[in-house]
Amino acid sequence: MAASRFLLVVLALLGSSVTAFFAPSRPKASFGSSVSRSTVAARMSPATIERESVKVGAPAVLDRPAEKTRVDEPVKERKGMGHEAWEVRIYNDGLNTREHVARSLVQVTGMSEMEAYQTMMQAHQNGIAVVGRWVYEVAEMYHDALQNNGIVCDIVPVEEE
Asked: What are the BP-aspect GO terms (predicted)?
């Protein structure tokens, strides 16, 4: 707010040459003319400056960007990843505390605290535990998030019989 007041004072002191720069559609006033400094300051109110700066060459509506199609690279299909089930498994390690593993399972997968505790205990006692089964994209997302939390885990396809 103080900066805009400072700008108005500077504009009023400099006179018409600055006014002509900001408002080219208005008639130029010379120092010897009958236009007073208060008139210049009134013309250059903050609202006037903003309105005039918006009008100068700015489009009213942005054009939609042209869509780029990539013809040079064919779409690659992932075999065996679409609708099949994938398991995310965690392993017991000596690096993470049991509390950290259970908390990470709750935060990443949305398990209840009891389910996360039971899964963590299964991994602690047996060395491995299945976190869950999902389609590949969801399993990959959970796997990556668990790895980012420092949990030793992997993702494997489920062999349905």
From this structure: protein catabolic process; proteolysis
